[in-house]
Amino acid sequence: MNESFTADDQLLVTPEEAARRLSVGRTTIYELMASGELQSVNIGRCRRVPVSSLSLFVNRLIGDAVVGQSRSGASIEPAPGIRNSLA
Length: 87
What we know:
Blueprint: E1 12-13, H1 15-22, H2 26-35, E2 41-43, E3 46-50, H3 51-72
Antiparallel strand pairs: 1-3, 2-3
Helix pairs in contact: 1-2
């Protein structure tokens, strides 16, 4: 069974790859995992981040920004290609 997977097919990524995808440092990813803000799983001795957790984390940040902006009367639009879970 030789299946080739592209980056879009991956279910789990390393913390380093998660950091690249979010454009943050590796230490930030480990801090987010330790605080519970970003879900991760252990497979043996390896730590992996579900790609779905990255999307949920970003959507939560967008939601927080929308709530903060609505209090000030301004509006915010999600970036193109980002699904808004509040809709």
